[in-house]
Amino acid sequence: MAKKTALAAAITSVCSPMLMAAEPSIDEEIIVTGQKIERSLQDTKESVAVYSSQMIEERNIVSLEDVFLQTPGTTYINGTFRIRGISDGPISTPNRASLASIVVDGINYSGWMRNDGATQIWDISQVEVLRGPQSTNLGPNSLAGAVIISTQDPLYENSGKLLLGAGNYGRREYKGTANVNLVDGVSAIRLAVEKSDSDGYIDNVTRNDDSYGFDNHETYRLKWLLEPNDDLRMVLSLQHIENNSGETRTILGDYNASQRISLHDAPSDHPLEADLASLNINYQINDQWSLTSITAYQDADRDRIDDGDRSALTTENGGGLIQRKDSDKTKSQEFRVNYNGDTLRGSSGVYYSQVDAIRTTDTLFHLRLRNNFNDFDPSGGLAGLFIDATGIYPELYDLTSKGYTDVSTKNWAAFTEWEYEISEQWTLTAGLRYDREEQSFGSSNVGGSSTVLPSFFGSTGLPNTFGTITGNTVLIPGPQPVTVDMAIGLANSTLGALSTVTPLEYTSTEFDNILPQLGLSYHWNDKVSSSFFVKKSYRSGGSEKTLLNGVNEFDSEELWNYEFAHRAVIADGRGIFNTNIYYGDWTDQQVSVPEPGTGSSILTMVVNAGESEIYGIESSFEYSITPELEAYISAAVSKTEFKKFVSSAGDFSGNEFAFAPERTASAGLIYNHDNGIFFGLNANYESEAWANESNTKKVDDRVRVNIHGGVELNNLRVEAFVNNALDEVYFLTNALNTDDLVPMAIVGAPREYGLRVSYSFE
C-alpha cells in the first residue's frame, strides 16, 4: 500500500504545480470506427478507449498486452483478456462462441488466433477497446466487449520506415514498412514486416534451459488501395502470421517467485501459423447514402506440445505429455447500407460467417494415483490414503488417449441501427439485431491402459493400517456418507472414462435471439453531453461430450446492460473528462465446473449459473498542461457476483468471478519538445482478485511502472525503455499445482529494458 501511495503522490506532485499552465493542445478529433455508425469519441456514448497511431507511439505501446495494461476495466493473462471482469474466451469446445471479439481489418479472429494472433502492434492506425455489449455491431460474441484493430492503409506517397531494437532476455526486434504510390490518387500499396524474438524469463532447471518461456512473432502484411473514381474505395489486405511461445508457469514451494523457475521435463512449443485476407469495399452512392462490403477469411493452424503433469516427473515415473493440433478456418461476409443526413443517420445490413474447427489431442501419462485420486474424489484426500493403505491400486496408472473434436458454426444476422436528432439538445438512438446460429459438434476418444482395475470389496475385509476395511466401511460420515466401495466405484469409473473408446458421434443444435438497444442523449452544450442506453446481448448455448456424463447440453446466456455516460471537454479544450456507469443483469451464465462426483480440474462440464450481475464505473481524464506536456489518468471499479449459482462443485452464490479485480487504474505523463526530446511515464494498477470461482485463493494487488524516452531528430528516432521499472513481482494466477502437488503460478514479467532505433524515409 505504501508503494501505491508513494507512486500516486509522485504523479500528483509532478502534475499539480503545472495545472495552472494553459495552452490548449488536445485538438485531435478521434473517430470511433468499430461501430456501424462512425462517430467522434466525444459523441460515442459507449465506453471506449481509443489509441491512435500517435498515442501508440507516445505511450510506447508495442503489443496488445500494453493496450490492456493501459485500459482500466480490462485485464490480460497470457493471451486471454477480460473486460469488466468477463473472460473473453470460450469455456468448452474449440471455437464455441466467445464473449468478446478481436477484429483486425474486418477479420473476426477465431480459435487460437484470438490468443496468439493479434499480439503485436506494428504499423497500426488505431486500436479501440469497446467495453460493454456491442450486440448490434458484432453480434452474440460481444457480450463483454470488443477490440477493433485497424492497420495502416496505403498512402499516396513513397515512404518507408525501419526499426531495430534490442533488450535484455535476448529481445530482438526487426520491423519495417514500405509505402509505394502506384498511380497518384488512384492506387497505392503498403508492405509491413515485423519480427520480434525473446528468450523469455523462465529458467527450466530440469532441462537446463533458460529460454523455456521464449516468445517469437512474425507478421507480413500487404495492403492494396484502389480508388478508380471519387465514389469507390477498395482496400485489400493480405497477412501471414507465424508466432511461437513456450511455457510460462513458475514452480513455487522451494523456489521464490522472483526466480521464475520451471521443473517441466518435457519440451514446450506452441507454434501458430495463419493466413488472413480481407476486402473492404465502400461505394458512395450520393451525399447521404453509401454501400459497404466486408469480405474476410482466416486459415490458422496451431500445434502445441506441453508437459502434461507440469513437473520434473518423466512419463515413465508419473509424468505425462500432451500434444494438441488445432485447425481453424473462418469466412465471413457483411453487406450494409449507411445513411448520413442532417438529423438522421443509420446503418442496416446482413452478416454471415462460418467457422470450422478441428482439434486432435494425443496424451501419454503414467498417472500417480494417490495425487490424482485426491483431485478426482470429493473425500478430501481420504480416498488417496485408503488406496495407499490397502495397496489394491498400483502406484502408477498408464494411460494413452487420442481425442478428436470437430466443430462447425454458422451464423446469420440482420441488423439495423439509427440515430435521430430530435432537437439541438436531444438525440435518440435505436437498434435491433436478429441473430441465428447453427452448431454441429462431433467428438471421439480412443483411450487405453494395461492396468487392471480392482473389484468392489463387498463384505470381504482387508486388513491395513486402518484396521479391517470392508466395502461398507465409511470413509466420510455425514448425510451422504462415502464408503469404501463408493470410493472404488468412483475411482474405477473415472479411470475407465479416461481410458475408454468413444466412437465419433455428431450432434447439432440451433439458437436464435433478438438483440435490441435503445438510447437517449442530451447535449448540455457543444462540449458536454449525457446519455442513457439499454442493450441486450447473448451467447448461444451448445453441447459437449463429457467423459463421465455423456452428452451435456447447456442453454444460451443473456445479459441486459443499463448504462449512463457523460462526456465533457473542459478548460477551454485543454481537458477531456469521460465516464460511464453500468449495471448488467446476467442470466444463465455459462460456467465450467467439475463433473458431478469429482473435484477434478480435468473432468469438467459446462453448466448454466442461475443469476449473475456486473456493475461499475469507468472514468478517464486527459489534460494538456503545456503544449509540450500532457497528463492522463483513468480508473475503473468493476464488481462481479454470482447471485445464484449452485453446482456439483458447491454453492458459489455470492462469490465474485475469478481473475476479476475490483479496481484498475492507469496514469501517465507524455512530454514532447520541439527540439526532439520526448519522455513517457505510465503506471498501472490492479487490485487483488480471486484466483478461482470458490473464492479460496487470491492474487495480490500490484503496481507496474513503465518508462521510455529519447530523442527524434529529423527522420531518426532513438528510444530507450524500461518496463516494470520497479521490478514488481506479481502473480497473474496462483491456483495451480503439479501432479506431484507442488504449487505453481504464472508470474508477471520482470523488469525489461532495451533500446530502439528507427529511421523514416520520405
Quickly list its features.
47 strands, globular, 762 residues
Would you write up a description of this structure?
- This protein is mostly beta strands and 762 residues long.
- Helix 6 runs antiparallel to helix 7 (382-390).
- It is built from eight helices and 47 strands.
- The strands form eleven sheets. The protein has a 22-stranded antiparallel beta barrel.
Query: In one word, what is the shape?
Result: globular
- Classify the helix fraction into a percent range: under 10%
- Averaged pLDDT: 86
| Number of alpha- plus pi-helical segments | 8
User: Any idea what the radius of gyration is?
Assistant: 28 Å
Low-pLDDT residue spans? 1-25
Question: Which secondary-structure class do the elements indicate?
Answer: mainly beta
Beta fraction:
over 45%
What profile does the largest beta sheet have? 22 strands, antiparallel, barrel
C-alpha end-to-end distance: 50 Å
Number of strands: 47
Quick overview of this protein structure:
This protein is mostly beta strands and 762 residues long.
